Amino acid sequence: MAAQDIIIRPIITEKSMAGIGNKKYTFEVAQGATKIDVAKACEELFGVKVAKVNTLHVRGHFRRQGKSQGYTRSWKKAVVTLKPDSKSIEFFDSMM
Predict the structure, then answer these.
(1) Burial 39-58, CB ≥16 within 10 A → b, else e
(2) Widest CA span of the chain, in angstroms?
(3) Is residue 19 part of a domain?
(4) In 10 A of CB 7, how many CB atoms?
(5) Residue among 42, 36, 58, 56 nearest 3 (CA)
(6) Quick check: is 31 in a domain?
(7) Can you give the pTM of this predicted structure?
(8) pLDDT tens readout for residues 20-61
(9) Environment class of residue 23 by beta-carbon count within 10 Å: exposed (0-12), middle (13-18) or buried (19+)?
(10) 11 and 26 in contact (C-beta within 8 Å)?
């Protein structure tokens, strides 16, 4: 898999933005991606040094709209922690 296929999109929430000060960045990643895949993809795409990666599966939430009901899609989230001597990711710097 290419690096663009592994990292799908950044997660922009209050909680994820609070981690930027500690060099923790949150991404939606491919379901089959491992921690090693995510670390290599981050280093390749953003030119940073990754210290560790935490991954978790986000379950789909139950939603109703009128008579119809169903679940939102399930997805995988990765929290990437950078090394202290690494540069930051510019995309997130513009958000602050």
Answers:
(1) bbbbbebbebebeebebeee
(2) 54
(3) yes
(4) 22
(5) 42
(6) yes
(7) 0.89
(8) 999 999 999 999 999 999 999 999 999 999 999 999 999 999
(9) buried
(10) yes
Which residue range(s) make up the domain with 50? 3-84
Identify whether 89 is part of a domain.
no
The CATH number that applies at residue 25 is: 3.30.70.330
72 vs 39: CA distance, rounded Å: 27
- Residue at 11: amino acid letter: I
In a domain, 94, yes or no: no
Contacts for 86-92: CB closer than 8 Å, 24+ residues apart = 86/23, 86/48, 86/49, 86/50, 86/51, 87/47, 87/48, 88/20, 88/23, 88/48, 89/25, 89/46, 89/48, 90/46, 91/10, 91/46, 92/10, 92/17, 92/20, 92/25
Selection from 15, 32, 1 nearest residue 79 by Cα: 15
Domain tally for the chain? 1
